[in-house]
## 1
Amino acid sequence: MKERARIMDKAGLNRVLLRMAHEIVEKNKGTQDIVIIGVCTRGAFLAQRLAALIGQVDGVTPPVGLLDITLYRDDLSSIAQQPVVHKTEINFDISDKKVILVDDVLYTGRTVRAALDEIIDFGRPQFIQLAVLVDRGHRELPIRADYVGKNIPTSPKETVEVRLEESEGRDEVVVLEKDA
Amino acid sequence: MNMSRNPSWERKDLLGLKELSAEEISLVLSTAESFKEVIGRPIKKVPALRGKTIVNLFYEPSTRTRISFEIAAKRLSADVINIATETSSVRKGETLIDTGRNIEALKVDMIVMRHSYSGAAVMLARHVGASVVNAGDGWHEHPTQALLDIFTLKEKLGRMEGIHVAIVGDIAHSRVARSDIWGLTKLGARVTVCAPPMLIPPCIGEMGVSVTQDIQEALAEADAVNVLRMQFERDSGDAFPQQLEYFKNFGITEERLKKAKKNIIVMHPGPINRGIEMSSEVADGANSVILEQVTNGIAVRMAVLFLVSQAAENRKARRTKSAKTESQVLAPGSLIGAPANSLLGKPVNT
């Protein structure tokens, strides 16, 4: 895969996350009942960062849970390699909470569909809002994000990669082109 | 996403631990850790095996293993059918292979089998396309029991390399002992077996274990002791010791544990003969993890069913993909060849 463009660097990523933290606090008029749930693995790191930033903005750091959606996928039978099953860790009751679901890239919407199903198996939240760092279009389900870091129009031949210090050792967002 | 480094499960069946690599065993254990979290949820069911059918085919009476497999399958949303051979056509003389093929003709995805003949699971697996999971065959292997034993040990001790496990009891007739020995030694644990001489099979030393007839010596350095069930129902006469005599010489008692390591883990595959293999105080005592083993059994069996089912799905997907690629090569520009993107490269979730 060939790198086409570098969309965000470390400073850019921080600014975007800070703006999203402000938006979450603004839209929900504070942090009352807010819980953040990140989709494994990068969404979970972003959820941690957003929670910390919300803490800076509003003084209260909401609890963070992480969600592994492997067992809820609809493409378990068609992906080339076996996904590794990770643990879901939601150590708080989500009933009547305002859940902010966090993922790195919103694409077909199928991951979010799986995540919604799994969250609802844990309880009945007041509502679920979706926060994504990148929305690259090409939805296959009627799903949209409440908070978007950056809209990046792409072709299906391209892919967006979010690299984070926690997993890749550096913060950046790049657009890659799949080899022909 | 860098998925290429992930270990993967390629086997159609799980027949025993003898043929597994240490990496494959570790993959089952780490997958089981995730499933242990699932069975602690308020809704203990995930849709991973939705639409799959699993048959529990039990030629030997079993309660805990069958229920454990049944719960594991149901928590994965699979459909489960139990066949107890006492009430089936096996009584009319149907052979194992015919039974297997008939079950397969019912479009079943997986067969979990318990059988009294060693090698039965291997034979069934050769003759059916469905995946076979061995739930115990004769004196040969009982892989999921050993996997749950190892899972429990790893959970308690945090590691396997270098730990010392004593296995006490009827080693000769025990499939659990054999599977345990294969699994433990592959992961770098030291194993000592302890039993009266007539219950130790010849050549057991070739499996890489130490042998003793002194229970106190077996316990002396052990981090854990796995106490096997004395299967008096299989008593054929001379070879078996008297029950009281066995308890006196090999039974696990509090006095004997006092001379062992303080935190020694006491395991038993169940059902326990209280007062024969171990005293009631030990069975219910602080060192006992016997009931935790039962809980862990569900997580381990969910992991096995999931991995085996995934491997089957992957094989199917690869076959379809190569068939499509072939037809594309044969008929360029045809209807099949044209919308290549949508047919071949189904996008992975991002």
## 2
Amino acid sequence: MILDQKHLRFQKLCRQFAETEFTKDLLDKLEETGDFDWDIFRKMSKYGFCGVKIPKEYGGAGGDYLSYAILVEEFARVSPVLSIYANTSNSLGGGPLMLAGSEEQKQKYLPPVARGDKIMVFALTEPGAGSDAGGTTTRAEEQADGSFILNGRKTFISGAPVADYCIVFAKTDPKQKGSRGISMFVLDMKLPGVSLGKPEHKMGIIGYPTCDVIMEDVHVPADALVGKKDKGFGYAMQTLDGGRLGMAAQGVGIAQGCLEEAVKYSKERKQFGRPIANFQAISFMLADMATETEAARQLVYHAAELKDAGKDAAMACSIAKYFAAEAANHVAYKAVQIHGGYGYINEYKVERFYRDARIVPIYEGTSQVQQMVISGMLLK
Amino acid sequence: MKIYVCVKQVPDTSGVVAVNPDGTMNRAKMPAIINPDDLNAMEAALQLKEKECATVVAVSMGPPQAGEMMRELLAMGADEAVLISGREFGGSDTFATSQIIAGAIHHLGIKEEDLILCGRQAIDGDTAQVGPQIAEKLHLPQVTYATEIIKEGNTYTVKRALEDGYMSIQVKSPCLITCIKELNEPRYMTVEGVFSADEKPLTVLDYEALKDEPLIETETIGLNGSPTNIFKSFNPPVKGKGEMFVGSDKEMAMQLAEKLAEKHVI
């Protein structure tokens, strides 16, 4: 795919911003503290990155899926964790409301999320319900006045420690089996009964805190229900469908970042009297890395283009996520290999990329779940 | 109030400068960027716009490819863009360029409260002549090398950088100010700006549109009409690396004295 002027301009903006603002000092600080960096988040918000895909009437920039993919790719190329900062509002955070929210809900929640004044995150996973989201046990009991009482525990919730709101999935009708009878709510994190687990110590994407969200007799008003009652699972799957496009783009960005580092290093590093790039063993690895990265990128852009054209993109998104996530790991592995011992030292960028890449085939649908989706569509 | 910001698309000279066999610069081989000082001028204009109601108009002379640069300026926050483009203008030196740009601004209209901002100089020619020449052609007062611009009504108080200090100058609009990088930190394009840049007006002024402008003498523009001709351009030879001393003043002085003695300077 050849990007048009507008998308090229947007790519330039994202690249310029990431290369200038995501300094080594900032990235080291994120890694050392594991804390959310409000300064860079505010700066991203000021330039409008949090609202790229949120429609103009709700305070966003009204960009398309292709722009969203470019944003995540370009940010991830410099910092995979900071790509999540700008991703959430455009994806799993803002997505459910854009998909199923009432006009009042969209007016209330989306503009502050698009501006970055409020942070909204997504809570589907539970200790016993990961890939099998139908196993949700969080309960929402409807009261006589139409309000709900929520009880349950959500786990590995990215951004929960800094969130103002959380999209929560809970069983409203326990009589319905599996994925049926689940509803989607927007939960105000300040409500009594909401508490957080301890921040998790992760292998990678350090600096975007993750923890459990615990709900004990949390009373939410009737208008916290988003979309139709008992239809939440479908909304979750549709949101994840768009979300996985973003994570596929994150894989492409990581792969691109690794490739650039490996090319640079293999030209500088001398062994046996010449740059290691002159050895075919290294240069062929670089060729493989470039090929996988570019193939992943084209799959992502194509899936984005399908979504923008309003065509069914579920299979294309799964294929892109599956391929790009695996590609990011292959490429990161080779980038570390080319760096040798230095690639194992955390002063080198590829060490961090290698750890960050590992989450991509896990979250928003593991590679195996993508295989299930793809094969399921082939065989239906 | 209108603020004209003069901008130039230049080859990125921070990398290697590509030179043609005939000694001219090979622009096709070098990435094109917005001249850095011009971005400071644009930032100053956008800051003034935020304080007062103003229309920011980016003005550039260049080939049609400079159109995308104009879109980027619109994406930063400029309201309108005007690209002066025509074969007849090609190869103009600073004398020719400034008449054409002055003619274009005259054509677009300059009123009492209006302002023209330029970058100090372009990184390709480094002449710093076009801004001042535009002011002269338009018979406007000018202040160069601005590091601070304060507006009160139609009066601007400009801090002007000198080699050994600064001077404060007050000037009334309409006037022209050239900006240096110490003035501000240019902003990026915004996301919203990127998406709406194609909807903002970009006007192209060609030779036909400007040939009757009284400020433009048609026989002194373009390559043939320009009094200056480029004889040769080349990459200057790389100078030897300097040496930095570290330590207290006394230690550094000792080290320096040793070095100078070694070289029989003292």
